[in-house]
Amino acid sequence: MANRERPLSPFMLGQTYRFQLTSFMSILHRITGVALALGGISLVWWLMSIAIGGEAYEFASRQWASPLGLAFLFGFTLALVYHLLNGIRHLLWDMGWGFELPKVYASGYAVFVLGTLITALIWFFGMRSAA
Amino acid sequence: MSGGPETSRAMPFRTPLKRARGLGSGKSGTSHFWYQRVTAVVLAPLAIWFVATLVSLVGADLETARAIIARPWNTIIFAVFLVTMFWHAKLGLQIVIEDYVHQRWLEITAHFLNHFLCGLGAIASLYAIARIAFAS
């Protein structure tokens, strides 16, 4: 523990530094990770509702289909797709691939483009499955 | 790029203590880093299977949902996915807590809750999946 307040470098996002895709995607990876961990609790709740059955499953199904439930599911899909794609990017870096700055930016933009497409695809099939 | 003449000239100023001994001061070596990657590699393909199964379950009634989860490979993949997911979540949340929570008592509480809730999530998922699989 530090016994004296020492000067710290400013936070990477905010007024001090120019906006950078790299630091933004890094913090977004953590934020989506935390969000997915919290959302994971709802997965357990959903599985439990299927195990219990009856009124519990009816209740859970109504919650998922409500506007708030759908908004939650949409956010969950976005977070999952982003975290998955950016996670693959991290694993490729760990293997030594794409660590040059132009490639870091190219793969970064690819995550957003692919992520939007995949999220749209998941919801297209989800809606078709519901209809 | 190391090992050039500059490096060897600088050598006398370095002591053997630049190397970590045994598992290092953290006493866990690279196990956290390694298991975060191992779980990530396992989760990537399983997440695709899991999402595809969830999409097929949209609007399903109870009997259909139970029957689909109770298919042998779905049961196994659901179980492996959820346990690995909570393991990966525990490792990730641990890093977030270590990095951003600076009040000691709050940090310890957060670590405790993280361990406990991720363990609970994994066990509860296994219980629910087993009940669905073995009831039908």
From TrEMBL, chain A:
Does the keyword tRNA-binding belong to this entry?
Answer: no
What is the annotated localization of this protein? Membrane
One GO location term (cellular component): membrane
MF (Gene Ontology): electron transfer activity; metal ion binding
Q: Where are the transmembrane segments?
A: 27-52, 64-85, 105-125
Assembly description: Part of an enzyme complex containing four subunits: a flavoprotein, an iron-sulfur protein, plus two membrane-anchoring proteins, SdhC and SdhD. The complex can form homotrimers.
Report the sequence similarity comment from the record: Belongs to the cytochrome b560 family.
NCBIfam families, per database record: succ_dehyd_cytB
Q: What is this protein identified as?
A: Succinate dehydrogenase cytochrome b556 subunit
This chain's source organism reads Luteimonas wenzhouensis
Taxonomy of origin reads: Bacteria, Pseudomonadati, Pseudomonadota, Gammaproteobacteria, Lysobacterales
Q: What is the gene called? A: sdhC
